[in-house]
Amino acid sequence: MPRLPFVLLLVTTGCAAAVPIPAPPVPTFASAPPPAAAPRAGVTRKAEVSRRNVPVRVPWRASGRYALVAGDAAPPRGRGPVVRYTVEVERGLPFERRAFAEEVHSTLNDRRGWGRFRRVDGGPVRLSVALSSPALTDRQCLPLNTGGDLSCWNGRRSVINAVRWARGVPQYRGRLADYRDYVIGHEVGHGLGHGHRSCPGRDRLAPVMMQQSKSLDGCRPNPWPYPER
After folding, report:
1. Can you tell me the distance from the alpha carbon of 51 to that of 146, in angstroms, rounded to the nearest whole number?
2. Which residues pair with 86 in a beta bridge?
3. Minimal CA–CA distance to 58: which of 5, 4, 99?
4. Which of 9, 68, 179, 188 has its CA 20 to 30 A from that of 100?
């Protein structure tokens, strides 16, 4: 029987498992409207504002080809090394590329984040942040099993599943902007060499490298590497 073009998404898991397992067949789907989230001061939320009352339909499979977001975005002033990176968005996804790139840059350069980052469109880079359809995510993340709704670090890309970007997860209680900060910080954290961590204790803030998309294990949600800064 032919596969339906869209079905409802159930978000239940988080960052890709460390041990590869066979991926089950996953149908296409449409995401529900993302919850409205109040923008933080100084952070552009163009994509959210423009689509606040419009359902974002995320296709299971888009073009399979990335478009590099052009331009050079400088890091904030300060001391310390600067990480050069690129942003890519799969062609055919229902997200404005520059708005995605601006949100990634704001997250990475937040005072509570990993450090100082410069977005470029050429030359040597440490990593790339790539918004991807579920089908492309599954392919990019092999041999890890992403099962259609996980994100991953694949050795050179922080592969962000577009379904996660559109929907978030229930344990973030509708705070989509915070969840987006988390998934960027978590997958880029892998690119910087950080491994997974566990909950340090009930009602404590979850480390950003904890798999918060799967469970909080008694911790409170936290999108930042250094939340007390």
Report:
1. 27
2. 128
3. 5
4. 9
Burial of 82 (0-12, 13-18, 19+ CB in 10 A): middle
- 13-24 residue pLDDT tens: 356 644 333 333
* Phi–psi pair at 67, nearest 5 degrees: -110, 125
What sections of 6-133 are H helices per DSSP? 46-50, 97-108
Dihedral angle at the C-alpha atoms of 197, 106, 67, 16, nearest 10 degrees?
10
Residue ranges per domain, the chain? 46-170
Give the C-alpha separation, 3 to 40, whole Å: 40
Nearest to 10 by CA among 162, 141, 167: 167
Torsion angle of the four alpha carbons 112, 116, 120, 124, in this order, in degrees rounded to the nearest 10? -130
Contact 186, 142 (CB under 8 A): no
Collect all residues with Cβ–Cβ distance below 8 Å to 24 and sequence separation of at least 6.
147
**Residues listed for the chain:** 229
Q: How many CA atoms lie within 13 A of 44 on its CB side?
A: 13
Interval 115-131: pLDDT, tens: 999 999 999 999 999 99
**Other C-beta atoms within 10 Å of 12: how many?**
12
- Please report the pLDDT score of residue 149 as a whole number: 85
Could you give the CA distance from residue 13 to residue 37 in angstroms, rounded to a whole number? 22
| This prediction's pTM | 0.78
Contact 196, 217 (CB under 8 A): no
Find the angle CA(15)-CA(20)-CA(23) to the nearest 5 degrees.
Answer: 85
What letter would DSSP give residue 96?
A: -
